[in-house]
Amino acid sequence: MPSKPSPITMDAVYTAPGYLFRRMQQIAVSIFVEECSAFDLTPVQYAALVAIHTHPGIDATRLSAVIAFDRSTLGNVIERLESKALIERKPSRGDKRVKLLHLTKSGAAVLRDIMPSVERAQSRMLQPLKPADRKALLALLTQLVDLNNEASRVPLRAEDALEHLGKAG
Amino acid sequence: MPSKPSPITMDAVYTAPGYLFRRMQQIAVSIFVEECSAFDLTPVQYAALVAIHTHPGIDATRLSAVIAFDRSTLGNVIERLESKALIERKPSRGDKRVKLLHLTKSGAAVLRDIMPSVERAQSRMLQPLKPADRKALLALLTQLVDLNNEASRVPLRAEDALEHLGKAG
DNA sequence: TCCATATAGTAAGTATACTGTCAATCATGA
DNA sequence: TCATGATTGACAGTATACTTACTATATGGA
């Protein structure tokens, strides 16, 4: 038998996981930007720098798979990083379509220097919880993101990204 | 003594709570939009509709406090809801600055009809976890968002929002 | 070789999210 | 009452995030 629709209250919003994920993401960005204000880097730009540092000579499409960010969005992010002279784009010899990404000296220095601030930011996000709860939340979240990988518009493909090494350039 | 900086790996990104919150938020939006595609409503627009339904005659500033969304952003959201004829803006008699928000008949109908899809979406987000883990994650997340409320740019002020009732109009 | 298909990067369009700023309006206190 | 400061909604500007479409280029098979 069909159940009567329950009256709509704000709990329909406040207790919904989607709402909590959104709020927490906004809080996380806010904390990150605050801790890292001296470096003028957003969380997305930071992640891109790390990935380019870890995969020198990666191209934009693979970069998007490695950090699971949208390809179109990433184009703009790359532009901003380039205009700040933190990265360089060089044409690939093998494939005229792709542009290979490398950190500049300045980009490598910024990445090195920002790390302590990033770690402070990441700590602050979970700070209000008891240590055991921090571990539990992180474990559950890691698990959930992994299990939901295919549900995301841009699934994480960490493996694919390694193929390019040695092939391009 | 100062510790040597550890080499930067992708784990600096993958295991960071901020990164996991971002990924999970994107997955959540993706699932919501998919389940609710028949209604052409975004998660933010849905939350606004619920809040306006629950607080008829609320103004934009209080609405922003009730759902903890940025005031500037909310202006655009309200515009879109109005252009879809889901809500109405009426001038307040008491205060010439404010515009009071109400659902239209159409808005109330959409809100009633979309609820099952929203609930399916919210379920799907946590589906991959075991039931006990879903409860645990939700509890920790609720706690963390609440404890971090003041760290967010737009803290939730559910109480404030109730004051307006009976005063305005 | 040539054609169909696939891919890389780009661009346009929409929707959040936040920063500032501004004019109009309101509330308060001298 | 009048000057001051606060509030409301609007706007401009920047940065994600995603969709669709487009060009240039690669690649595979007939």
Topology as H/E string of chain A?
A: HHHEHHEEHHH
SS content category of chain A: mainly alpha
What's the name of the CATH homologous superfamily of chain A? Winged helix-like DNA-binding domain superfamily/Winged helix DNA-binding domain
Average pLDDT confidence of chain A is 91
Q: What attributes does this structure have?
A:
homodimer, 169 residues, mainly alpha, Arc Repressor Mutant, subunit A, 59% helix, 7% strand, DNA-binding
Short description:
The structure is a homodimer of 169-residue chains. Chain A is built from eight helices and three strands; from the N terminus they run H-H-H-E-H-H-E-E-H-H-H. By secondary structure, chain A is mainly alpha-helical.
Outline the structure in words.
The structure is a homodimer of 169-residue chains. Chain A is mainly alpha-helical and 169 residues long. Chain A has one domain (14-163): Winged helix-like DNA-binding domain superfamily/Winged helix DNA-binding domain (Arc Repressor Mutant, subunit A). The first copy, chain A, has eight helices and three strands. A three-stranded antiparallel sheet of chain A has the order 1-3-2. The first copy, chain A, is globular, with a radius of gyration of 19 Å. Mean pLDDT of chain A is 91; it is low at 164-169. At the A-B interface, helix 1, helix 2, helix 3, helix 6 and helix 7 of A face helix 1, helix 2, helix 3, helix 6 and helix 7 of B.
Helix and strand arrangement:
Two copies of one chain form a homodimer.
Chain A: H1 11-14, H2 17-35, H3 43-54, E1 58-59, H4 60-67, H5 71-83, E2 87-91, E3 99-103, H6 105-126, H7 131-147, H8 160-163
Antiparallel strand pairs in A: 1-3, 2-3
Chain A binds a DNA duplex (30 and 30 nucleotides) through helix 2, helix 3 and helix 5.
